[in-house]
């Protein structure tokens, strides 16, 4: 997958979990939970959904590495190339 495809999947998953969030409100370099006011349970649902879509597991120890859309893109892109 390309970085753009991964970013699209992330945005779609955020909107699936929190449908009231407009794509324009998703700022790629801002902390997802704080900037979008998403609680930890919804954040976990986003990661779970992305893990299923992208077939890449995110262990709990890596949650800090996927705190923004940009970081998620990098994380999933790096692991998809392995």
Task: Please summarize what this structure is.
The chain is an all-alpha fold. 57% of the residues lie in helices and 0% in strands.
**Overall average pLDDT:** 95
Separation of the first and last Cα atoms: 12 Å
Question: How many helical elements?
Answer: 4
Secondary structure tally: strands: 0
User: What is the CATH class designation?
Assistant: Mainly Alpha
Strand content bin: under 5%
Secondary-structure class: mainly alpha
Structure in words:
The protein is an all-alpha fold and 82 residues long. The chain has one domain (3-80): Non-ribosomal Peptide Synthetase Peptidyl Carrier Protein, Chain A, CATH 1.10.1200.10. The chain is 57% helix and 0% strand. It is built from four helices and no strands. The chain has helices spanning 3-17, 32-36, 40-54, 69-80. Helix 1 (3-17) packs across helix 3 (40-54) and helix 1 (3-17) packs across helix 4. The relative contact order is 0.20.
Characteristic terms for this protein:
82 residues, mainly alpha, Non-ribosomal Peptide Synthetase Peptidyl Carrier Protein, Chain A
